[in-house]
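Here we describe the complex-level prediction in full. Unlike the single-chain runs in Section 2.1, the two entities below were treated as one system.
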Amino acid sequence: MEMKGVAITGMGIISAIGNTVEENYVSLVNNRIGITSIENILTVHSDVIKVGEIKKTNQQLVNELQLSIDNNFSRTAMLGTIAAKQAVQNAQISSINEYKTGLISATSVGGMDMTEVHYYDYFEDENLIKYISSHDGGDVAHKIADELGLKGMVTTISTACSSAANSIMLGARLIKAGKLDRVIVGGTDALAKFTINGFKTLMILSDGYNSPFDNDRKGLNLGEAAAFLVLESDEIVKKENKKVLARVSGYGNANDAFHQTASSENGDGAFLAMEKALQVANLKPEQIDYINVHGTATPNNDLSEGRAIVRIFGEEKAPDFSSTKPLTGHTLAAAAAIEAVYSVLAIQNNVVFPNLNFKTPMHEFNLIPQTTLKYKNIEHVLSNSFGFGGNCSTLIFSKNE
Amino acid sequence: MRKTYINGLGSISAQETFDSVFLEKAEINEIDNVLSLKTPIYKDFISPVAIRRMARGVKNGIVASAMAMKEANVSSVDAIITGTGMGCIEDSDKFLKAIIDNKEAFLTPTSFIQSTHNTVGAQIALGLQCKAYNFTYVNGAVSFESALLDAKMKIEEQEANSILIGGIDEITDYTMSLFKLAGFIKKENESPYKILNSNTKGVVFSEGATFFVLENEIKSTTYAEVLDIEIINKLIVTEVETKTMDFLKANGLQVSDIDAVVLGYDGDVEFDDYYKILSEKLFGKTPQVYYKHLSGEYNTASAFGLWVGAKIIKTQEIPEIISVNNLEKLDYKTILLYNQYKGMDHSFTLISKC
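The structure predicted for the assembly as a whole is:
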């Protein structure tokens, strides 16, 4: 029998709600939110914003990874390496290049966290020059690959906040096409002054705690995180009798082609992405048991995404849905990767995670997120991620039959 | 398996590549260590109001993509896939400077909005009202090859018949000053900058936008078929020959089947051995081509290399200005391209005459 979708055999994550998959799960089912005042970045906005920050300093991350003193890792690369190493370990891979293995990373800020600190100082202090080459997005993937000892296809996708969904999508396609036997897919983004100020000028940062799909939502909390998944071919799964955590059964990407940063009112891009993912998974909308929505809690996103959900599922027939961003913040290019981990956890534990901070339904439609922890059988989870540039991506994860 | 053909080209580079056939107007500049672009008349392609808001990469990307689509005679595509090593650094530099200089006050969102790596792909989609698949790859010297590989897979998956792909990189004065400080760019006092047999470190830098329309059908505008692409993050010099042989073998080819090899020589004495070993050994009797003395080096310069390869197959000639070893062939049927940057991001690309 042909398996539906591509096998996920390992996961790793570090986020504001935990340093491992287990810690993240415990936080998810106990409403332990990771949104706090910012500690690791000096910013004039520290009194007015709250963020999903990983409470480890760069030095602590260096120590944890046992990096040499002259390393030039950005925070983004360190978070990514931690998550990717966990994923490889979780998949019980001991010899990384034994099969044709690739790494598809995703990032939006790359090494910006270092660049913005040292920008003018490079000319004053030659010890800082090493960070010039760690600015670009590809450097992050190179460093993760080196730390894993991986030699093969390595690339990076950067489509703003949908980036990691697209890396998972590409990875699944590479396995299906037989171009790779095994691929590590995911994304990483560290908090940076650059994005804090960027989203601040767009006036879509909440001054409190984000409340997705609430009528009075005031915007998002930024966060930082990294997550990676190991995808493997059915040949490897069979040969090595691998435990399959879940499968990537559907994926779709479309462009809203409406505005560089705003989503269209009817959510055309989101609609097309979900429609395509269902088609690839060969599933009907009513077979989706849970939607992990993009749900950033900006006025624009939730309206647009909600309208697209209504178009796909029908207003009265929308499955249980929730945004996990009240817990983690919006982790940009890593968002779809951590939410992929949460989708797999939902399937493994047959649970819908609550959409916290919700009080008042939006007046535009009758969509009420699931606000409490709900246990039920979960076969298929649909996860949305949308980004600047109209980039809309949907992934569907399914229980391994 | 469905095949992938290059049916249209568009290039903005340090050479006049938009109103010429094949580098007949090319000029070698060995004096500057950063080559400036030969730009088209933007207002022929973009409204003057829009031009003012656009960074160079966006402008060049839009124009080069429009040229490729015009040549391929297509008005819509089923996917837009771009690659960019450094992304939209003009706008990200601008926003970052404003943050630092103004201590996080008095900021406007425009440059932040346009600083995301997928801005070019997004702006092209917006202009075409193209709601299809839209990806952007950001991985050093394989940014463009990732887009090429993705597009080929899309056609093979029967998900698309017509795809726009491109490699775009832009430079800013500040980034160039950082790259000079870090030694990525050749020193000011070391000119003339020879790309072949160079004995100095670093490269001559530049920027550019090179776009291709890939389709599953041969038509009158077809340049070549894209046979295969392989991406490898790291190789040591002594592995290059074996990897090249493996790649050819996987495509049922031998060294003698390759009619020309397009090499990414960039004059960095520390890393040119990767190319030299192929020049001197495997492909000693094969016509060899180089191009970065014309395009300069940048993360997506290899897209210019593919442009060169496609032109060779279409025109069946290798202009003297890009020939490494002055060898010629009567028939240029199959061409291999190999590129790397600083020993990382290796790519092998095979194209052939249809």
